[in-house]
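Side project, low priority. Logging it here so it doesn't get lost.
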Amino acid sequence: MNEIKGISGKDVKKVHFIGIGGVSMSGLAEILIGMGFRVSGSDIEISKFTQKLTGLGADVYLGHDALRMGRPDLVVYTAAVHADNCEYQKAQELGIPLMSRAVLLGDIMKSHDRGIAVSGAHGKTTATTMVSYLFEKCGLDPTIHIGGEADFIGGTVKSGSDRFFITEACEYTDTFLNLNPFIGIVLNIDYDHVDWFCDLADMQQSFLEFARLIPKEGYLIVCHDDINSRFLEDSVDCHVIKYGLMDKSLDYTAMNLEYDSDGKASFDLYINGKHYGKPRLNIPGTHNVLNVLSAIAACHLSGGAIEDILKALESMMGPRRRFELRSDANGIKVYADYAHNPAEINGTLEIASNMEHNEIWAVFEPHTYTRVLVLFDDFIKSFGYADHVIMADIYNDREETGTKVSSRLMAEEIAKTGRDSIFLPDYDSITEHLYKNMKPGDIAVILGSKFIECVADKLADKYKSQV
């Protein structure tokens, strides 16, 4: 039985998860199973993640049931679980220790020699996947916890040795302040999570607190090209590693970028001013060149051989639902992407613009009324690379229904910028509109939550039926 340092001194053998079906919670549960703990859990729906856990021996059941929960040694809960939850209340009555998901993540990191935490307003899942892939290919055998699915580990997590632990570091509700990274990566800082942060300065303060968690002998890897992150370079006591594009004075630099017809870049890699070859990425987009530089730095600083890193770049793939090709039929390509804030939308559509194409169709499902209200003008500007924009209803899972903004209003404002822009109320009408109007050479990019991606699958099914 391995020990979780944060609960050392307690005889913990069985852990129960309230809300076990989420990407992060299911991943943590899988890691604990790999460490030798017995795991149980509940959720309001059965998913492929819960089914996988059941196959690994976990007792997972539908709904919340204080009696079925039994008497575990520790209960872990998500931020969505409140004090009126019957299992939460039962744990309190029985005196069973309760621990939030964020604290458990930090304690698992403490149980490894070196934690690598990947933070940023956007790009965390992709960059964490890249870091993990390079560590794995360089034989460093990390334990991995990703907020998305990666094919090379067959899911969201991988249990490795206790030397390295790689995870996303989410800023929402200051979750990442529960971590203790030896290497911390800051990809970017853009104002988001407006229901938690007051403004950009408030968000920057949280990232500063995260960076200051890194010990003096550790490393902060920061994107020098990101203006909002640059202040961190002179604000910490640890080693600062800077990366970016077209500046040989930085520690890790990509120079002379070139793109193929799929938008995939090749570049000259410089480390501390020395040339180390011209890798070609298997993932499109300029922002992914920056993500790769952060991953190269983390792996190189952890002992990865540069020749192994360069070789691994040739085959490296990103996580699912990050510009994932879902259909390529009749000369029309359909991609799905999780982009949900203005910077992510702009970056994703820029990838499509660098590919050979006729016209670009962007389909977007906004998430939360507060985000749309506060970032409304930025959202309108983020569709500059699209020829056609289709807005779905705002997806809202944690707020009261808003009245000041709507997807229809967003579509009308985007139309004023000269784009063909419409609002369609449901997934079927969106699918039909795309199917009837897209032409060979067009690219459709389906942006937003896990629900809107069904449009990509519906389109793929329609094209298959023509064959």
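Brief comment: Residues 8 and 183 are 24 Å apart (CA to CA).
Revisit when time allows.
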